[in-house]
Design brief:
Elements lengths: L2 H5 L9 E3 L7 H10 L2 H23 L3 E5 L4 E5 L2 E6 L2 E6 L5 E12 L3 E15 L2 H67 L7 H34 L2 E3 L32 H19 L3 E13 L4 E12 L2 E11 L10 E8 L1 H72 L5 H34 L9
Parallel strand pairs: 1-8
Antiparallel strand pairs: 2-5, 3-4, 4-6, 5-6, 6-7, 7-9, 9-10, 10-11, 11-12
Length: 479
């Protein structure tokens, strides 16, 4: 069954369905109802939807951005004249273009008498050498990964829920097998009892009474097993959202499903080795951590340039440029403003700004962090190696399990064919009076038991397929 059908099933159940008496429900409908009632599936569906929203949020945060600001607005009154001061600005950022940002701003003063503008500026800045772009890439990769993992958890839970469904169904069929075995004992002991009676033993003799007690005990076992089966069936159907009522003398053969098809076993070798969940997880961890170690660089270089109208520092328009440099615990900055325009006089000189800071302990810390990073990478490579070993072991185990299932399938089918043929022969002989009813019913019970074992084997194949799929990664899923 495709995973898509699981993801789009209705998560909220309607009113319970009541069935009085018993009408077999198609197995696939039971399965879908079982999944609809799985609370873990419902929760994981919501978690996947939340992860999708988080991914959208991260994409917005990492994309084009514009910020409009009024700055601090001051309103004053002097001798009845109102004056307004403000410092509006606008900033446009494009993180993916080397962290490019362009900003314009000014200091405005407006009164009834006049209006003026000062420190009107237009500037641009970008990273020449920086890991900010890589850090943003890591944030986006982690958000995408969180969404993929949410989908994988949903997929795995749907597989686990399906396995649980068929495991419970298998337990019900095993209970039917126990009833058949109890009936076989009943038929065998009935044959023995008939033999005792035919030999002329008195009903008061110990031989007669012992044979009779065995038959009565067998009937009690059959009735007890049937009651347990009815209880388990009612509970199972309730888990699937159906309320059913079964009679105490319910024919258990009617409870055997007839719509389960023999599944094709998945080929574990057809899956890409790199899609093995443990390998994929170990490689992803190493890749993202390697990017984070690379992003944890101690060196960066950034530049900025701009134009300022009526710079309050030089009392003229200025062309501005600057550089900032960071290396481990050392930070340096330099800026230069060149006076231009009509206000610039011969005596006007450029304004130079410098800054520096030093943290000696940072050098030692960076050295320790590099050693820690190297050790972490070695551990991650060991995890990849361990995952590869786990894959090789799992492949051998899966192949052996499949060979066992195929052997069981062939053996059970052979036995079923043999006992079915025998039951047909004994039926005609019973009608002819050649064999007793107990002998005929015993052969018929044997055939029924192997028919149930065929169904159990089919369920084992379905469970095997789910287990194999659960160990590999499937992409391109939506919620």
């Amino acid at each position: 069954m495709s995973m898509r059908r699981y993801f789009f099933i209705t998560l909220l159940m309607a009113l319970p369905i009541f069935i009085y008496g018993f009408e077999p429900i198609p197995t696939q409908r039971l399965l879908l109802s079982y999944l609809e009632n799985d609370v873990d599936l419902q929760k994981l569906t919501l978690s996947a939807q939340k992860a999708a929203l988080s991914l959208d949020y991260t994409k917005v945060d990492e994309g084009f951005d514009i910020t409009l600001a009024s700055g601090t607005v001051t309103l004053t009154s002097d001798e009845g004249s109102a004056k307004i001061k403000a410092s509006p600005s606008v900033k446009v950022s494009l993180p993916q273009a080397s962290n490019l940002s362009v900003k314009a701003g000014a200091s405005l003063v407006s009164s009834e008498a006049a209006s003026s503008a000062q420190d009107v500026s237009l500037s641009a800045s970008l990273d020449l050498i920086s890991t900010n772009g890589l850090s943003r890439k890591i944030s986006l990769l982690k958000a995408e990964r969180a969404y993929k993992e949410a989908l994988r958890k949903l997929q795995n839970q749907s597989l686990e829920a399906e396995k649980a469904f068929y495991t419970e169904y298998k337990a019900l069929l095993s209970s039917i097998k126990q009833i058949i075995k109890a009936e076989q004992s009943l038929y065998s002991d009935s044959i023995d009892f008939d033999s005792v009676k035919a030999q002329g033993y008195s009903s008061s003799s110990s031989t007669y009474r012992l044979a009779e007690m065995k038959v009565l005990s067998d009937k009690h076992t059959v009735e007890s097993n049937l009651r347990s089966l009815i209880h388990d069936y009612v509970v199972f159907y309730k888990k699937c959202g159906y309320d059913i009522s079964l009679e105490a003398n319910q024919d258990y053969l009617e409870l055997i499903p007839n719509d389960i098809e023999s599944p094709q076993a998945v080929d574990v070798l057809a899956f890409d080795k790199n899609s093995y969940a443990k390998i994929e997880e170990a490689k992803w961890t190493n890749e993202i951590n390697s990017l984070e170690r690379k992003a944890d660089s101690t060196f960066s270089l950034a530049a900025n340039a701009g134009y300022t109208y009526q710079n309050s520092v030089t009392d003229s328009d200025t062309l501005d440029a600057g550089l900032s440099f960071d290396l481990a615990g050392l930070s340096l900055g330099a800026g230069l403003s060149f006076p231009v325009g009509n206000e610039a006089s011969a005596s006007s000189s450029p304004a130079l700004t410098l800054s520096a800071s030093l943290s000696p302990s940072s050098f030692k810390k960076n050295s320790i962090q590099k050693k820690q990073a190297n050790l972490s990478e070695e551990a991650e490579l060991l995890d990849i190696q361990s995952a590869n070993s786990s894959y090789e072991t799992y492949i051998v185990s899966a192949i052996q399990n499949l060979e066992g299932l195929n052997w069981e399938k062939n053996t059970i089918n052979e036995n079923y064919a043999m006992y079915s043929k025998l039951a047909e022969e004994l039926e005609s002989w019973y009608k002819m009076g050649i064999v007793t009813q107990s002998e005929y019913l015993s052969a018929k019970a044997n055939a029924a038991m192997y028919k149930v074992e065929i169904l159990i084997n089919m369920l084992d194949f379905i469970i095997y397929n789910d287990e194999v799929k659960g160990n590999f990664i499937f992409e391109n899923q939506e919620v």
